[in-house]
Design brief:
The complex is a heterodimer of chains A (294) and B (135).
Chain A (H helix, E strand, L loop, with lengths): L3 H57 L7 H4 L6 E7 L9 H18 L3 E7 L1 H11 L3 E5 L9 H16 L5 E11 L2 E10 L19 E3 L2 H75 L1
Parallel strand pairs in A: 1-2, 1-4, 2-3
Antiparallel strand pairs in A: 4-5
Chain B lengths: L4 E6 L4 E14 L2 E6 L5 E5 L2 E7 L4 E6 L2 E6 L2 E6 L2 E3 L5 H17 L3 H21 L3
Parallel strand pairs in B: 1-8
Antiparallel strand pairs in B: 1-2, 2-3, 2-5, 4-7, 5-6, 6-9, 7-8
Helix pairs in contact in B: 1-2
The chains are: A alpha/beta (294), B alpha+beta (135).
Chain lengths: 294, 135
């Protein structure tokens, strides 16, 4: 049985922890709002990009002049996984969920006899994947210093990927990130970015209907300019969704921690009070029985 | 008074402009073009340059864009820019940095094709710098 003093110390330390988790929760809430705004602000661009891409692929049709980034190399031997996670921990299962999805994917690929290469974005995913697949990790991108995610960050990652593709280092590239559904739910997602799966479902509702476009320069040339940019946009979107998801996960994790600390303080206080009362009673009995003995 | 149409300038970070305009001058990859209402559908890439927007209310706004493409349909025009800023907010240091990078690219280019491409990009950037200097 811990002494009264021990209990007092314990309660004080849990209270201090609670204050920290509470502060972290509030910080996460503020950052979440900002991250969500950024994600929303980026949406029009990727939507337009999607519709323009659909338009142009329709125009080109299945002609042979589509760039390799879109059609792929025709093989699927070497897979590149770009795993985007957070830079910091203390956000519940957020990072491990993404890593688990990636790991399942890697295991499946390896079982099929494929070759796997990994690029890690974010420290946490790197730490987790390094344990099992250190030899496959080509590179890691550190965004720790970055205060506000800009398109340049995504662009740099996309350029790296495209460069590797042009060198023939891989055949298929898949992007792993967490889709931001709501504050309490983030869904880890795998999305194939090379070859780009745009050709499916050429939207009929593209503005301008079936207008015949003029292209300046040639459609093929525009497309070869557009596809790398589209990859950057996809990466950018993934990073933004991740940032929002991380903050959401952190907020709910810290909310839980604060609540747990509260519960713990209650329980400890009850034990503390009970013990103090027991001690008082014991002392009283001693005094009374002493007086009666006289 | 020319007819107004919808113009949108979008950068990956945010939607910069979404408004009714009278005309827009776009630095297309194969020459500048002015877009007005009921333009034939055109899709073009753009080079670094200045986009001049004449709004329906009579004002004029100028934006610096660094590459991207424009999607023009009779009902409107959407400009997807890699990055875009209003001319008055241009960061001169940033522009200088881009020029420096372009110069390095041109110097590092491995084959003639890449070099001519890089040099072209560089010249576009320097023209751009000249164009906005007095502003």
């Amino acid at each position: 049985m811990p002494s009264l003093k021990d209990l007092r110390n314990r309660i004080a330390s849990v209270k201090a922890t609670q204050k920290i988790t509470k502060a972290m929760q509030m910080v996460a809430a503020a950052k979440l709002r900002r991250a969500q705004e950024a994600a929303e602000a980026a949406r029009p661009y990727s939507e337009r990009m999607g519709s323009v891409l659909a338009n142009i692929t329709q125009a080109i049709g299945s002609g042979g002049d589509a760039p390799a980034l879109m059609t792929g190399t025709g093989k699927d031997n070497v897979h590149l996984l770009v795993v985007c996670t957070a830079e910091r921990g203390l956000c519940g299962g957020f990072n491990s969920q993404i890593a688990r999805l990636a790991r399942d994917h890697i295991r499946r690929l390896l079982a099929d006899g494929k070759q796997v290469k990994i690029i890690c974005v974010g420290k946490k995913g790197f730490d987790i994947l390094r344990r099992d697949y250190a030899s496959m990790i080509l590179d890691r991108v550190d965004l720790r210093e970055v205060k506000t995610l800009g398109f340049v960050n995504a662009d740099a990652i996309a350029k790296k990927v495209i460069h590797l593709f042009n060198e023939g280092a891989f055949d298929i590239c898949t992007l792993f990130y967490s889709q931001f559904k709501s504050v309490i739910s983030q869904v880890p997602t795998a999305q194939q970015i090379i070859p780009a799966g745009v050709a499916s479902a050429p939207a009929e509702a593209v503005d301008g209907g079936n207008a015949v476009y003029e292209y300046e320069p040639e459609p093929g040339e525009i497309l070869s300019d557009l596809i790398p940019r589209n990859i950057s946009v996809q990466v950018f979107r993934a990073l933004l969704e991740n940032a929002a998801g991380e903050m959401g996960a952190k907020m709910s994790a810290m909310d839980n921690a604060t609540r747990n600390a509260g519960e713990m303080i209650n329980k400890l206080s009850i034990t503390y009070n009970r013990q103090r009362q027991a001690q008082i009673t014991k002392e009283l009995i001693e005094i009374i029985s002493g007086a009666e003995a006289l | 008074m020319a007819e107004a149409f919808k113009f949108e300038l979008v950068s990956p970070e945010r939607l910069l402009v979404s408004t009714e305009v009278e005309s827009v001058v776009i630095p297309g990859a194969e020459g500048e073009m002015t877009v007005m209402a009921h333009h034939a559908p055109v899709m073009t890439t753009i080079k670094p340059g200045v986009v001049t927007v004449k709004t329906a209310s009579g004002g004029e706004e100028r934006y610096v864009v660094f590459g991207g493409f424009a999607d023009i349909v009779p009902a409107g025009c959407t400009l997807l820019a890699e990055s875009a800023v209003a001319v008055k907010d241009v960061d001169r240091a940033d522009l200088a940095r881009r020029i420096q990078e372009a110069k390095e690219d041109a110097a590092d280019a491995k084959d003639d094709q890449a070099r001519s491409k890089a040099e072209q990009f560089l010249s576009q950037l320097t023209t751009l710098e000249g164009a906005i200097l007095p502003a």
